[in-house]
Specification:
- Belongs to the GART family.
- InterPro entries: Formyl_transf_N, Formyl_transf_N_sf, GART.
- Keywords: Purine biosynthesis, Transferase.
- Catalyzes the transfer of a formyl group from 10-formyltetrahydrofolate to 5-phospho-ribosyl-glycinamide (GAR), producing 5-phospho-ribosyl-N-formylglycinamide (FGAR) and tetrahydrofolate.
- One of its GO terms (biological process) is 'de novo' IMP biosynthetic process.
- It is a single chain.
- By secondary structure, this protein is of the alpha/beta class.
- The protein contains 6 helices and 11 strands.
- An 8-stranded mixed sheet has the order 3-2-1-4-5-6-7-11, sandwiched between helices. Strands 8-9-10 form a 3-stranded antiparallel sheet.
- A hairpin with a 2-residue loop joins strand 8 and strand 9.
- It is globular, with a radius of gyration of 16 Å.
- The chain starts with a strand and ends with a strand.
- The mean pLDDT is about 95.
- Bound molecules: glycinamide ribonucleotide.
- Glycinamide ribonucleotide binds next to helix 1, strand 5 and helix 6.
Length: about 200
């Protein structure tokens, strides 16, 4: 399976994807920021990359779409990509775009997820991999990882502790999609040929 990864910055999830390529190959990286650290990571793995500035969404999406038509990936992974894709763009790739989000969706779509979990005195936090649809962080959830929140936690400690869980969650999920263990059929999610009504927990 050929995977294109969209990034905006640090690229630690991209690095995890590159390190754990088993059933898939990262064939291209797209970044909306020329100075994204993830671009150096792609280069160190000899994976081609393209920078598409996202100042004008319609223009950026037209460029991305043209590139994706050539690359023809089986899956698009948003790994720390901090731009919202339009409904018309997403409609080109139904159930072919997934995103990793640092919260237990449907809780805390959008930004500042760690601080919002703390503000609400949550005892559990986590990350979600979900299909991308036209609604921000609202597409069908595939898998989740959980962590406990302690009294000492800050947004920074939560983010740091969650990040290594994110890496395992994302690489496991992509490998299982790539080998056909996870699939979407007849408007439903399947894992090992079983209908899944709750996110898979890793
Ligand atoms: C990750 O924590 C990812 O879950 C989050 O950005 C970070 C990117 O880190 N994504 C979002 O908030 C998307 N809404 P990385 O660049 O090191 O992978």
């Amino acid at each position: 399976m050929r995977v294109v990864v969209f990034i905006s910055g640090r690229g630690s999830n991209l690095q995890a994807l590159l390190e754990h390529q088993k059933n898939y190959t990262v064939c291209h990286v797209i970044s909306n920021r020329a100075r994204a650290n993830g671009l150096s990571i792609a280069k160190s793995y000899a994976v081609p990359s393209t920078v598409i500035p996202w100042r004008d969404t319609a223009q950026a999406e037209a460029k991305a779409l043209a590139l994706l038509k050539v690359l023809n990936p089986d899956l698009i992974v948003l790994a720390g990509f901090m731009r919202v894709l339009s409904a018309s763009f997403v409609a080109n790739f139904p159930f072919k775009i997934i995103n990793i989000h640092p919260s237990l969706l449907p809780l805390y779509p959008g930004l500042n997820t760690h601080q919002r979990a703390l503000n609400d005195h949550q005892t559990k936090h986590g990350a979600t991999v979900h299909y991308v649809d036209q609604h921000l962080d609202r597409g069908h959830s595939i898998s989740q990882s959980h962590i406990n929140i302690t009294a000492q936690d800050t947004a920074e400690t939560l983010a740091a502790r969650l990040l290594s869980k994110e890496h395992t969650l994302l690489t496991t999920t992509v490998n299982k999609i790539a080998c056909g263990e996870i699939y979407w059929q007849d408007n439903q999610l399947f894992y090992n040929n079983q209908l899944i009504t709750q996110p898979i927990v890793w």
